[in-house]
Design goal:
The protein has 332 residues and is an alpha+beta fold. The protein contains nine helices and 14 strands. About 2% of the residues have low confidence. The protein is 24% helix and 26% strand.
């Protein structure tokens, strides 16, 4: 017999979801059969799987160790040395959320098994701090909810609980929060204001194209561009970007389309400009930084997802410290 004690890490999930997460190799039909036969019970009572779990609930699986082992994969991969020793620049943390400042040249999430990502470093930190255990990772695994390109630094939002995951996912999906970026482009920026365009992505090549004309395969994008500072010494404009829609590579490709390629962007940037700044100022990464996010007031949101677990974020603004390359340019 195996007993799962419901903690904040599992609260809000349906019973069937927890069982499917725990016995992740078992078909749904097996879970429902065990519920019907009372081999899986909630608080020692028969359940149908649709019950919403609360802290303190008890889920008992009257199954043999062999059956559990056969239906349960080893999800907790061993963390590499780099992930264990990786330092987090934590912007904010509470029982539901952890926001970090992702450095350049780090993935948001793993692309391959051997990758080192900030997601895995966050999990390592939470294990070390005692916020999660290897056992709790079987039922819920904390995860980042927004992704930044490997070469884009800045704010990463991650959930520590199912409630946090639902809230952050809805914030991102509904575009309820305001997200701001800083970008460095060559020359004195002339195209400032609110711009709309249409973005198409080639999934195989992982590259997007921008057009001012709609098409069946294109998505409407909106980007707000304002001038934060012009640095005459370097002939560089520091732009403040509000990401209104959130499509893949949107800021990089849209600015390039507007004639303002981001310095250091090897995919959409200007090769000669990138070479100049690499040789003269050792700029080796794209100058794009996710620096601020503002969450809307709870009272302005008409969605049952935003429970008391949202209170700590309501109306708050969180900012990250720009990397040294940005500070060098900003300070002239």
């Amino acid at each position: 017999m195996k007993e799962i004690h419901v903690t904040k890490n599992e609260e809000g999930y349906k019973l069937k979801k927890i069982c499917m997460n725990y016995l992740d190799k078992a078909p749904a039909s097996f879970i429902y059969k065990m519920l019907r036969k009372k081999n899986i019970v909630l608080n020692d009572k028969k359940a149908d799987g649709n019950e919403t779990l609360r802290v303190g609930d008890s889920v008992k699986l009257y199954l043999s160790d062999e059956t559990i082992a056969g239906f349960k994969s080893e999800k907790m991969e061993r963390l590499t040395g780099a992930e264990k020793t990786g330092e987090l620049d934590i912007i904010y943390e509470d029982e539901n959320y952890i926001f970090c400042n992702k450095p350049v040249n780090m993935l948001s999430q793993k692309a391959k098994k051997d990758d080192v990502s900030i997601n895995e470093i966050i999990i390592s930190y939470l294990l070390e701090s005692g916020s999660v255990t290897e056992e709790s990772l079987s039922t819920f695994r904390p995860s980042v909810v927004n992704r930044l390109d490997r070469n884009t630094s800045g704010i990463i939002l991650a959930s520590k609980t199912p409630a946090g995951a639902r809230i952050l996912s809805e914030v991102i999906r509904s575009r309820a929060a305001k997200k701001y970026y800083l970008a460095c482009v060559p020359g004195k920026a002339k195209k400032l204001g609110h711009y709309k365009a249409y973005l198409s992505k080639d999934e195989k090549k992982n590259i997007v194209t921008i057009s001012d004309k709609p098409s069946k395969t294109a998505s409407l994008i909106e980007t707000e561009v304002s001038l934060e500072k012009y640095v005459s010494r370097f002939d560089v404009s520091l732009l403040r970007i509000e990401l209104i829609t959130g499509k893949s590579h949107q800021i990089r490709s849209h600015l390039a389309y507007l004639g303002m390629p981001i310095i250091g962007d090897i995919k959409y940037g200007d090769k000669s400009v990138n070479k100049k700044f690499k040789e003269s100022h050792k700029i080796n990464s794209q100058m794009l930084f996710a620096y601020e996010i503002t969450f809307p007031l709870k009272d302005s949101l008409d969605n049952d997802v935003f429970t008391d677990d949202y209170d700590n974020l309501s109306g708050k603004t969180f900012s990250a410290k720009p990397p040294k390359a940005f500070q060098f340019v900003i300070n002239g």
